Fold:
Amino acid sequence: MASLRSVPPAVPPEVVPDDDATNPSSRTRSVWLLQLVLGASVVITVLLVQALEPSLFALWPFSSGVGVIIALTAVAIVVPWQKLPRAAVALIPFGDIVGIGLLSFGTDLRFSFFWVFPIIWIATHFTLVYLISAIGAVGVIIVIDAAVNATGPVTALRLIVVLLSLTFIAITSYLSARQTRAFKQLLRRQASRLQGTLQRVSGQERRVSQMLNGLDTGIARLSADGEVLALNDTYVALYGVERDEPQRPGGAVEYANLRGEPLPESERPFARAARGEQFDDERVWLFDPHGEWHALSASTRRLISSDEPESTLLIIHDITALIESERARERLAATVSHELRNPLTAIIGHADLALDDPNLSPKVHEQLEVIAAAGERMQKLISEILATSRGVFRETSGPATADASRIIASSLASFRPAAAARRVSVIDELPESAEVLGDAFRLRQAFDNILSNAIKYTSAGGTIRISGEVSPDDVILHFADTGIGIHPDDIDRVFDPYFRAQAVRESPTPGTGLGMGIIRSIVEDQGGSLFLESELGAGTTVTVVLPSRSDAAVA
Structure:
């Protein structure tokens, strides 16, 4: 009876509580079951005795024993054992021992086998003290029976065999019950741990689900057979699908282009992912159930786990805002380019007209040529910005070549007036020719930015020295100034967009923080490298390394 078990010393009762404490009503059911089995066995025996040997009823111990067993059975049924202390239950099996002793008194212990019922009951559900007491009670009854009835050696031997047999049965039942309790309590502990693990896993799944539902990215997880395993809220809202029937098409329709033809069902991202296809950044347009257009980027990721079947993750990014921003950038670039072209056209036109005047002095003629050339470069820059904003791709015919010395000399001609105005000396130590691989227009843009920075951040009386070295492999150009310099902590960040070094921020010279990044980008696009050395308050040296033209000819 589970409700009457005592917890063995090897397993602390506080770890796994006894059934009597957790479910007292089970105690009553167990008492009924065990006592009714014994009572029914005795009643069947009484009926057989009545038919085969009715003279036994003349013996008062036999009749008394039957009465005790039946009375105890009635008590077991009537008494609410769940309300009584556990020790009170032991009165029933001990009373049964006495009743069975009366049944077998003076009958050569022919009914002593009934002692097996209370002995097993006590061995299974009570402690060792109760079991020893029960065996002792049986032994006392056997001794009294032998003394009163003056049995012979054979009967005495029979009594000893009965007592030893009951003792063996009691010990075996006790050990088996103890082992069973230990296993059951171990299973309970394991079940408790599994339940805790299940709760933690369920909690983690809930948290992951909450995280996925909090994303503004649509996510659908599909099995290898195309079955929908999970959908997050964003996907459900975007496509208008039903969670209970996710395989059914939702209220949204996908298009290859904005207001174009709808995509065939088999070519939609969901169908392709269900087939196990792998794709990345597939662009589609979605007309949602609310009548709004969305630009989507669809990608798939294969999920492989050692403890779960392989599945596919369909990831849907809503890039409508990105597309709109790109269009806004294109419109802005087109507007700015158009508005800048008008004044530049006027500048270049008037410069050309002025250059046609034969009465111009050589100095003025040279200055007008610089103005016209600068305007033409500006027009080309604007055209490139406009083309880039529209995504125009220009195929290059091959590696271009240019003379770095001539490009820098032309750039110096444009910046000498600004240097003179700031009383900054510019020293040109470039070789006569420095042929490099690269686009002359882009290199001029880089050199203009380097010279502009050097002039802006060099104080009056300072010097800018430009030198170069030509080798079979490279052309190395040095732009050294005696300006304000850069703090060591800022050198690695001067190439970041919009970053301005501390010394620059403290100076009155304005700037955007884009120049150095643009210079490095141009140089690297031409296959070169850019190096920067600076000392705060002492000046900066910019070194540009470009592949030489002779190296290309050898290759």
About this structure: The CA atoms of residues 101 and 140 lie 10 Å apart. Confidence is low (pLDDT under 50) at residues 1-22, 392-397. The longest helix spans residues 153-214.
